[in-house]
UniProtKB/TrEMBL annotation:
The complex is composed of two ATP-binding proteins (OpuCA), two transmembrane proteins (OpuCB and OpuCD) and a solute-binding protein (OpuCC). The keyword Cell wall biogenesis/degradation does not apply. It comes from Neobacillus mesonae. It catalyses: a quaternary ammonium(out) + ATP + H2O = a quaternary ammonium(in) + ADP + phosphate + H(+). It is an enzyme of class 7 (translocase). This is Carnitine transport ATP-binding protein OpuCA. Gene3D superfamilies: P-loop containing nucleotide triphosphate hydrolases. GO terms for molecular function: ABC-type quaternary ammonium compound transporting activity; ATP binding; ATP hydrolysis activity. Residues 3-233 form the ABC transporter domain.
């Protein structure tokens, strides 16, 4: 298996109290799959992605990529955050070239940057500064920067969460087109059921307190998904039922806690 998440647990200790964020997470992800991680706030979605990125350590368990244990960040994993996190003093071209600065000569790095800026339809903005771009365009630069490293896995932490609905829909189309062209393995964190259905091969639905895998769902709806509204609605209803049960559980726990304190 390409990406293996094995018995991953994560606890955070605060003022001598331990909080379990992730409990016994096990996932196998094939090369080239688009997998979304979906769940309520606080279920550990972003923490899991950070562990795969090598930015956060597990309390126990391990992550394997092509059989090699992940213990730190590496160029085999590209990360796209909710905010584009571009360097404001650099041009669009320079931002995409930045992770390549130690890997290749400047001319070659510029050619690679232009290749991926063309892929995200920003060839005409290479000399612009980030502040001259819209939020959606900045996210496209961030995607181009992550892809420029030619990572084995693209990790995306709610990359479109802060965008308006129209911009988000347009970027869904562009991301799907990029994925179909590159066949990169993508691990995508989202709060949106419709977003996960539109983009994913699989949807990992998570519960909270602690973060666990409720269900790992294969999306068997042909692409493009917009052409199959009945199948999409049926799957959306199924996922909503899973999440509503989880929300009801949390509310019940909070009411019980309030009654006893």
């Amino acid at each position: 298996m390409f990406l293996q998440i094995r018995d991953v647990n994560k606890q955070f200790v605060n003022q001598n109290a331990a909080s379990t964020v992730l409990s016994d997470i096990n996932l196998d992800i094939k090369e080239g799959e688009f997998v979304s991680i979906l769940g309520p706030s606080g279920c550990g979605k972003s923490t899991l992605l950070s562990i795969v990125a090598g930015l956060t350590k597990t309390t126990s368990g391990e992550i394997l990529l092509n059989g090699q244990q992940i213990t730190k960040p590496g160029k085999d994993r590209g990360m796209v955050f909710q905010q584009a996190a571009l360097f404001p003093w650099m041009t669009v071209e320079e931002n995409v070239m930045f992770p390549l600065r130690k890997e290749m000569k400047k001319k070659e790095a510029r050619e690679v940057a232009h290749q991926y800026l063309q892929m995200v339809q920003l060839s005409n903005y290479t000399k612009h500064s980030p502040h001259e771009l819209s939020g959606g365009m900045q996210q496209r630069v961030a995607i181009a920067r992550a892809l420029s490293m030619n990572p084995k896995v693209l990790l995306m932490d709610e990359p479109f969460g802060a965008l308006d609905e129209q911009t988000r829909s347009r970027l869904h189309h562009e991301l799907e087109k990029i994925w179909l062209e590159t066949k990169k393995t993508i691990l995508f964190v989202t709060h949106s059921i419709s977003e996960s259905i539109k983009l994913s091969d699989r949807i990992v639905v998570m519960g909270t307190r602690p973060g666990i895998v409720l269900e790992d769902i294969q999306v068997r709806i042909p692409r493009p998904r917009a052409q199959h509204p009945q199948m999409t609605a049926k799957l959306e209803e199924r996922i909503m039922g899973l999440l509503q049960t989880e929300i009801d559980k949390v509310v019940k726990e909070e009411l019980a806690y309030a009654a006893n304190n």
